[in-house]
């Protein structure tokens, strides 16, 4: 899947590279121009805020996915993981209302619970992949099914709703702004920065890249491959937990339809951002742009009734393909020979 | 014979060919010609542009300027090995086999024999078996490439190239990973091809080989053509000197006597793994210890086991007298033991990354300041490594995979030394390294030992073992056959142990 | 043996209404099996039409059912599989979505989808005047959604009420929230929202509150009869003043009728169509089941 | 994801290898034993026939996926592709009833149409991947959305149904047996054999393996990499078309929920069967067993009401993971070092 990087000359790669880095940004810009030309309300403060806040979920999850994919893995379970974490979090908080009341303590308990579950679920994925020697695709396809069915089970097929009074306490985490930006956006920004530093400026990030490039080389270079790979899944789990913490106060509920297809969206955001699906090259900045691009596409489609509702998926698909094509194609030079 | 050949037009010729990668020139107006029935050797330092010239001549790289002629006619060669259809075959310097596929599948890749649209597997297997018989190779055609040793892989490459019935056979360091015995077999094949009128172009850093097999020699230096002459007109020294551009003193450094009372830094007793049995030896401070033996004799496995890369069934490992068992390379590194792999492409370097991350990967914890990687320190390390090992990259941001083969090897050495090991195990230290640099590396090894470091050299090059080691262990079939010291270290003795003519299981 | 085995097949609950249905089915199973020791009800649910066809095949080949109660995922794809069951001589009860070929089912129990749309539109007309604006949030693109939507639009037609736009919110709170957010950014003047479904309505209300546009007599009409919604209607909520019933208990009704077909002497075959009642503060108490999950 | 195959010694690989080949067969056997012990009707002729017939859809698609994956690609669009092909096929046949009547001619027209659409859709995926230089994941994620929304559009959000009289003509293709086996099973068998021969006994199969193993090597061996890769997608499209041809008479309709998640099932079947997700090693036989395993899991879960329906997904996930773990784990030898 990384065919574009193979067998090219250095020069073209350098030139491409700039385009690759700028590509997602340009694609996002074009989308914004389209959105604005459809309806000037697209650039209204309210809509921009909505857009950013919505991107936060997928974006935070995608930051975690960047690590997993860079290290050569894949995690299909994130959407279901978010759903089950949200579900358990709600159950725990509802039960804690009796003892802890409807104050901040209960919410903190819920958040703590979410983080622990995220770390645990990530660890399970990592453990099965590395020590169980099972392909990441299979492991996470399996846990995807497991998590999804667990939340259905807990919710009895329906919806788990947060205690009404508790919702009042927790609500601000989604709805309040802080220095003009909603809290989810702040979380997104912090996670992005932390992710960027971790991937680009620490030994851990270097190790992820090395493992994704060539596992044997990594092993011979004193990298504890299994441990690092497990960590990438744990980080992914943590990101899912954080995303869930800001998701739950939004509607105060979780059901078996929570987070459906988030895994594909997250992976798509990562790949649109320029990270290579086979591992060895990751870009957090690109991932963030990728998440924004995906959210913007959905937003734009809600802003126009020119297109039949039924064709939303067609537009989405076309835009994703074109957005990636814009950055992958060799502009300004003859295409390299097959 | 030479005279008659000279009259013909060359089968393949390059005229004033230049090649740049982006803004970086690599070949400057080089001319080269190759005639039917001759072996034309190309020699030069690492990074001189030999591989690049060969790729230009076989169509893998388009030339930036200049003309190529086939049978005197100007041509543009098709890309990606399609020049094979014109009878021009290249063996790449870097192994070029599909790892998960079998030997037979690789040899026939791209020109399978079919009958009625279905593969004629029996015929192909049989053909491979016959080719292997010809070159005395004992590999099953059904074996997967990933299960072969590097030397075996190289032999498969050679057989693959020869099987194409090429008019022009271009071979980039085919012998770098072969032992002398295999090289002899290989040269016999080359002679046969030559007799059939095949034009052969060939790169080697082993100048004796060049002298033995080549009819003419062309020397490149820094991408410039220096000379083309019949082999007879060169002495070995002259070749080396023209390559390097300076007088070369002794290849091997003077050996200072080993201190027999020095501390034993590494003691191995009864080490047994899947492929090795009951290996025992020790290593002293300041000693250069050689490990010799035939390919697949298990030398690599001994040290991979010690460094935590292979499972150990039984045995005792003591470092500085303390019993240890490294669970991972990181543990070994922290105890001051580093192993430099012979497989730089699959296990040594991240080919898609630049030099800097490669350089510091093994010793990365040393470059962490606070929480983050200290990029300035990394840059210094890179500068240090480039200086120390004379790594020649015209562009410091080049990907490791685009470095010349010898420079990759040097980068790998630099990477290992960054970890500052007390005991360093170097597997095939000079694979693909030019004579000039070889000399530097030997001196470097001697200097390390003199500073009190202990070095293990695993090598299939006998002169190298003899030239730099204080003591030599010879392995065969997963066991140590004998130990040699002082004057006993000579080719005959080593060969006798390696071939199993002498020695029994040696302990300690 | 002379045990009466009845297979009950319906889609896997993925939203609250279906969960309510599942709950009612399980309650009915317990109740009926306790009442009649010789009756065995086998409940299976399936995530898609193909799987449901497979599950029905398995009910025949493995459980050798005497009767099938089926709520088809979709009408068309399940017509043939149910017809095959019919050929084994089993009694067929179809719930909610009719099969595409008449005469297969012995008993038909259903809600009324066009009626749901129509009743909703009629209520809109009582509250709004000419020139008022509404937006519509639809369900998952399916026949049900089409029936409801088409009937709604037909009823609104000519009333002078503007339907600004309609988007699919997939009977899902999250989608309801996001689509409504975008409608609010896009249209400065919205007087009412038809959310068609109580789950969507919850998302819509959250979006309205976030944007601070929940005042000025703006209101939302959902549908189905979720207990929380009914409760708030009882409490006189201004934002969701009414709801339109689409009872998830219809599956239990169907199971009752089917068992009765074996147990009672009188004929029970026929069509049982449940109305799409408008739930208002006046009658809400009649539809409030606090123990149901829905 | 192929970490188990990397860096092992020859010996251990050989030992593993046999287990890998036998693994899926053993997993299937164990499942059958479980099924039989739950209910002896599991091994009844009727059930076995149902099982085989059901496996045919996913199995045929998975045979195509084996080629795509072996050559290092991935196709996420197959489920949606099946839906849209089924939809168009139905529209074409319904329209042809007026001119061609309700006889075999119309059905053949429909089948021809299906094959052409399958080849075309596959070609589009291949073209965008190779010539467009866009990651296969993105291309097929995009076409997945496009195909899915097109079928919704054609069906106007509802269901497209085959003309009732035509159904009578077409019905036997799914329901009739031929020498004791239903026709879909025969198609499955033929596709499997053809696939096996193509992968293992023709140059094309070798080229797929070589490309998946190392694209540069393949290119240097003068293999037309782009062309072969495109062909794998075309084959995948053809397989989807064949699966659709036997699917349509079963339910006589297509809607936006047709074929949902088939892509994951097909890929899972391929991976369970031992094919390496990163390419370079493919096994048709394993794929077929993988498809049977997946269908059997679903079948067994329909056989028991010991487990809450909501937990079906949990069981499925667990069984998939355990089935793969059984074949991947290193039996009878110490695990090689990380
Ligand atoms: N694809 C490439 N992109 C950029 N630079 C390259 C590329 N290939 C080779 N080079 C550079 O060209 C120079 C010549 O390399 P080449 O491989 O021809 O040397 P060589 O003579 O074969 O050396 P060695 O003996 O070490 O194999 C080196 O500086 C190398 O880094
Ligand atoms: N008898 C054998 N059966 C299976 N694998 C073997 C056998 N002997 C060696 N090997 C494997 O083949 C590889 C080559 O062996 P090893 O590298 O230890 O030998 P070497 O003496 O270093 O030879 P080389 O000159 O090829 O480096 C190792 O990975 C080893 O595990
Ligand atoms: Mg070279
Ligand atoms: Mg029961």
Automatic annotation (TrEMBL), chain B:
Could you tell me the EC number(s) of this protein? 7.6.2.13
Keywords (alphabetical) are: ATP-binding, Cell membrane, Membrane, Nucleotide-binding, Repeat, Sugar transport, Translocase, Transport
> What domain of life?
Bacteria
Give the location in the cell: Cell inner membrane
Which Gene3D superfamilies does the record associate with it? Answer: P-loop containing nucleotide triphosphate hydrolases
Could you state one GO cellular component term attached to this entry?
A: plasma membrane
Q: Which residues form the ABC transporter domain?
A: 12-247, 260-502
The reaction(s) annotated as catalysed by this protein in its Swiss-Prot or TrEMBL entry are: ATP + H2O + (2R,4S)-2-methyl-2,3,3,4-tetrahydroxytetrahydrofuran-[AI-2-binding protein]Side 1 = ADP + phosphate + (2R,4S)-2-methyl-2,3,3,4-tetrahydroxytetrahydrofuranSide 2 + [AI-2-binding protein]Side 1
The annotated topology with respect to the bilayer is: Peripheral membrane protein
- GO MF annotations, alphabetized: ATP binding; ATP hydrolysis activity
For this protein, the record's PANTHER family field holds: AUTOINDUCER 2 IMPORT ATP-BINDING PROTEIN LSRA, CARBOHYDRATE TRANSPORT ATP-BINDING PROTEIN MG119-RELATED
Quaternary state and partners of this protein? The complex is composed of two ATP-binding proteins (LsrA), two transmembrane proteins (LsrC and LsrD) and a solute-binding protein (LsrB).
Query: Which purpose does this protein serve, as stated in its record?
Result: Part of the ABC transporter complex LsrABCD involved in autoinducer 2 (AI-2) import. Responsible for energy coupling to the transport system.
| Family assignment from sequence similarity | Belongs to the ABC transporter superfamily. AI-2 autoinducer porter (TC 3.A.1.2.8) family.
Name the chain's protein: Autoinducer 2 import ATP-binding protein LsrA
